[in-house]
Each structure stands twice: as C-alpha cells, then as structure tokens.
Model the fold of this input.
Amino acid sequence: MQDKNQEFTIGEFTFETYHEYRDAQEDLKKIDLINQELDIHDQEVAVRLYNMLREGQITFKSPIGEQFATHIADIVAAGSEDLLEDKAVVEEAASKFQYQKVLGRLAVVLAVAFFGYFVYAEVSDIMHTRELEQMAREAREKQEEQAGSAEAEDRLADTNTSIGVEKEPDADPFARENPVDPSTLTVLPEYEEFLAQNPDLVGWLTIQGTNVDYPVVQKADDNEYYLNHSFDYSENSAGSIYVDYRSDIVNPNTNTMVYGHNMKNGTMFGSLKNYLEEDFFKEYRYIQFNTIYEHRLYQVVCVGLSDVAYQDEDSYRYYDFIQANNMEEWEAFVSNVESLAIYKSDITLAPEDEILTLSTCNSYTEDGRLFIVAKRIQ
Done:
C-alpha cells in the first residue's frame, strides 16, 4: 500500500501523486523520442516543433514537458536574429525581381508545409510504433506472470481448452451448430486492460521472424474504419490489424480473414513480404493468433499473390471467402488458392478445418495483394 507521504521524483522534479508521476514519465518518453529522431537545434526543425506545440499537435502533461517546450521556444528565439537578417537580404533582392519573389515565396510556403507534414507524420508514426511495442511487452509480461515461468516467452502456444465446437466424424463440416455465447467466456488476463481501452479488441497476432506482434481489432459491420485508425482511435495512415467484420472469432467461420497495411517501414503487415522468400517460408511456419478468450496456433499452408478484382471481372476473390456452405464452395476456395500460391506446404486442408488468412497489399502488380493461408492446429 502506498505511503501517504511518499513522493515521486524525476531529477529535480517532485510529484505529489502517482498519476502526475506517470504523466511525467510519458512526457519523458515523448521528449526522448523527439531527441532521438530529430535535430531540435536545426532552426527549421525547431520552428516546426514550436508551431506544432502551439497548435496542440504535440502535447505535454507535466512540468518536464513544459520545460522542454520552453527550451524549443528558446532555440527559435535564439535564431530569430539570423532569420531577420536573412529575410532582409531576401526582400532586398526580391524588390528587384518581383516575379522571382512571388515564385520564391510560394516555393518556401510549399517547402515549409511539406516539411511540417513530414515531421508530424514521422513523429506520429514513430510514437504509434513505440506504443504498440509497449503494449506487446506488457502482454508478454502478463502471460509470463500467469504461466509462472519465463519459459512462456519461448513457447509458440500455451493454449487453454479450445472453445471451438468440435464436430463429430460424421457431422456436416459446413454446419454451425450449438454456438458458444461470448458472455459465458472469460477474457485472458493479459488482454483485460487493453480490452478496457478499446472494446473492439478481439485478439493478438504474433509471427516469429517478422515485426508482427500486434493487437487485433474488429469493427461491427465496418471494414473501413481501422484502415486509417489506430488502436486508440486516433487517425493514422498505418491503421490497425483488423478482422473482417463478417468473421466470427468465438464461433469460427470456415475462414477468418485478417487485414493489415503493407507499410514501407515494415510495421503492420509490412514484414509479411518476407514470405516471398522460399527459405523464410520454410523456416517460419507458425502463426500465433490468440483471441481475447483463448490461445490459438496455426500452421502456414501457402503464400499467394493475387489482385483486387473489379465488379465486371470474372476472377476468384479470396478475400470474400468467409464461410463455405457446401462442398462446391469449399473446393472452389482450395483449388483457387492453390492456383494463386507461389509456395505451398505438404499440409492438406479439409472442410472441417479452421482457416486463417492474412491479407495485405503488394506492388507486384496494380492493386496487387499478398495473402497467407494457415490452418489451426491448436
């Protein structure tokens, strides 16, 4: 229990409450990130940061953050004299060449606007990535704590009893009978805090050998929202990893479809392109896709390339395959996926299997797609 007289300190700063102390720690993380990625003593960088602070694009919650903001203002002020001198030289020359002046100012405005966007986008993306990495660390620590052993980190799967409906040998493989009521299930301890932050959380996806170690969300009746929104609902071009709203993670359909952007910096599904190398495909054959209720393990069956089909095109849309209602639909899926595969394992698929498909963009052709099909084994 916390001592009422306990003080929290960071350097020369003292905080009366733990909440204020945590705010200061978060501000320190932001400051450290900015200092690592940007040269704040570069006058242009300092000016953009100063404007972003004034406009509320970057915010701080503690005296430590306020001190840093003051420091940025001091850097801007220290360079103002040189900026004024440069401005006078530019205006003197511009008075002789009015046309060039207009073009020059336009170029400066465009350059500053582009630079500002670049700085904001870079800082935003980096902070987004760091936040997801912190979430992944917290989830692993919780798993280890629950398992009671550090060996949990090295395990590919530590599954609970499966909540999926087991079909009898003679049962119809396409029937979805006796569905499980999600309200009767218990959320895994490692995901409780994150579920409280975002009720759209449905699981966690981890693939060894890649950067994929992310929360997975699902928006009811909406496959567009998480294309450009982060886990915390903020707008972000990287978006989130999300499940097709037509898929059911508690009572799995034939195929659970998961989407993510192919980011150039390797985040989200950007590192799935590694599977285009045969050696990588052979080495990293397992995908951990835990729901918030249980641990699940899948084995990669194939990796394929396709493209988005237009409405008038008569081509197979793998991303529309969610539930097979009969043998004809199942066989159409298997045969088409095999025809699109660039690498295949010797694993066979059966109608009663639970399939996981990861889908992302790929530039091998216009509107190209890279997909990975995996079969649940635990």
Observations:
- Confidence is low (pLDDT under 50) at residues 115-120, 149-161.
- The longest strand covers residues 297-307.
